[in-house]
Write a structure and sequence with these properties.
By secondary structure, the protein is an all-alpha fold.
Amino acid sequence: MSRRLFSLLRGGAAAYVRTLRTAPSNAKRYLLAVALQNVGIGLLGTLFALHVRAQGLPSSVVGDVEGALALSSGAVCLLLPPLVQVVGYRWLLLGASVAFGLSRFGQALPVGAAAIVALGLLYGLGDGIIRSVGAAFLSENAPAGSKLTMLFTADFALRVMASFVGALAGGVLPTLFGFWLSEPEALRWSVGAAGLVMLVSAAPVLGIREASRPAGRTRRRYLATVRSFQSWRRLLGMAVPQAVISFGAGLVMPFVPLFLRTHAGASVAQIGVIQGASSVVMAVATLAAPLLVKRFGPVGAIVVTQVASLPFMLTLPLARSLALIAVAMWVRAALMNMAWPVFNQVAVDGVPSQDKPLMLGWINVAWSVAWFAGSVLGGRIAASSLTVGYFYAAALYLIGAVATWLLLRDTKLGAEPAGTAAQQP
């Protein structure tokens, strides 16, 4: 049995390596850029909330920053799609890298709460761009069929592994800087390092090659895109459940480092290891996504994994042992996120090419607005309790999973709708 399992794992890993090796050059450059960005995201996931508190600011500032970036990201997701037709993917992805890097550099400076929150708006520009056009760009620069599923899964696994590297670095850097700096200054320098890595992600984007775009007024193109949009049912089925889940996630996810340090007594290094190991578990779990699709179908795979994660989420606020909390956190994260590449596929597969950017943009508007509300409220809840939010989040996750099944269970994938041949944007 173990030999057969090892053989399956080895064969699966080889298939993903082949997928990455044979991917088009544009897709490879995009994947490298996103991997660098996720190294920075992993660093910030470990450090940012601790950095804010070390500067003497309340935990509500963490929620307000998350709310600001979500609000900005939502606005970008709403307004951005027609710009793909005007300026192309390359310049938008380049702008995302610059916005990511400069915002985190600014937040590492000795500025007040208002400036830190305002810089969250700049970060949200980059986040909105990646959310709006990332999956669409990968879909347009990748093989069709089963290889697309493999590439989406490899993309997610790379992101998570990069976050793992960043999270581990987030646990180590403050310790290294701490040899000659105070803890607040060590955290400040570490946040600045995250900004540098994210800014460097612009380098591979510069190598992306695209055909020239026809000139046209953005407003006219936006209205034309909306008028020609045909995937309303798919959009409703994707956006509504994601908004519910996002609201629940916003209540707790920005405050995980504070929860680990305050509720479980973890050190900065332990937080980095826990966050990093969570990323590894997620990366490994995502490799099983194609198998889940074969067993349950795309929508079934999403729903089953989301529901299975809930007992582990409820374990977090009830447990006191750091080891038990860490294990529950890893399993919860793996189950809740392992079908994320399947979600991306459901969002774009069988959708006309001209609909894809708008589809992704509007889904992420719903996600961002709900995250804004959840994180701002979560910051106020965290000021009095770092545990109660998990119970609310679990209930919202369950509602979101049920809504996903009810709205998407009859979704058919893999073909363009009749009369709507795909067009290159």
